[in-house]
């Protein structure tokens, strides 16, 4: 039971989720300050209200409909989404694209900076199993020898004097 719990905690997606929650909670104060300090006063000035939350209100009997409050929440959501995308998602996607491009080009990667992927391990296991069984391992397109390389060496030079 303990080992199952340890395996669950050590999964990458659980750790990533925990980091996302902590970063999101810490970043909420920054986003609230931007919304309350910059956007709320600008939009409230347009609607002649002291804050965005108090703008665009419609009296409805004893209650009020507050469209400004909804607009403030939407602006805050869009700011959080933009920062998460441009500060975290986009740079990580670029890093993964660069790693994939370097792997396809055959550039050796530093194992500390670029850990081995599941696909790399599975390919290595497949090749080892094929070698143990005496079968020829399938060759990836990037590992394929140049065409006619073996036949040119065995036939000797093509020119005569």
UniProtKB/TrEMBL annotation:
InterPro entries: MS_channel (IPR001185), MSC/AndL (IPR037673), MscL_channel (IPR036019). Keywords: Cell membrane, Ion channel, Ion transport, Membrane, Transmembrane, Transmembrane helix, Transport. The chain crosses the membrane at residues 14-47, 67-92. It is a multi-pass membrane protein. GO terms for cellular component: plasma membrane. It comes from the Bacteria. It is found in: Cell membrane; Membrane. One of its GO terms (molecular function) is mechanosensitive monoatomic ion channel activity. It holds the Pfam family MscL. Gene3D superfamilies: Large-conductance mechanosensitive channel, MscL, domain 1. NCBIfam families: mscL. Channel that opens in response to stretch forces in the membrane lipid bilayer. May participate in the regulation of osmotic pressure changes within the cell. Belongs to the MscL family. Homopentamer. PANTHER family: LARGE-CONDUCTANCE MECHANOSENSITIVE CHANNEL, MECHANOSENSITIVE CHANNEL MSCL. This is Large-conductance mechanosensitive channel.
């Amino acid at each position: 039971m303990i080992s199952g719990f340890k395996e669950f905690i050590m999964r990458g997606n659980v750790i990533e989720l925990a980091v996302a929650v902590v970063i999101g909670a810490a970043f909420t104060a920054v986003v609230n300050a931007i919304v309350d300090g910059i956007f709320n006063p600008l939009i409230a000035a347009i609607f002649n209200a002291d804050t965005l939350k108090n703008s665009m209100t419609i009296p409805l009997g004893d209650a009020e409909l507050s469209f400004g409050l909804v607009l403030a929440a939407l602006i805050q959501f869009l700011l959080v989404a933009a920062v998460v995308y441009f500060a975290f998602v986009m740079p990580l996607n670029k890093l993964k694209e660069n790693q994939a491009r370097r792997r396809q080009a055959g550039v050796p990667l530093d194992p500390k900076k670029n850990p081995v992927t599941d696909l790399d391990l599975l390919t290595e296991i497949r090749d080892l199993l094929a070698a143990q069984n005496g079968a020829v391992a399938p060759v990836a397109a990037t590992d394929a020898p140049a065409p006619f390389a073996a036949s040119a060496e065995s036939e000797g030079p093509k020119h005569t004097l």
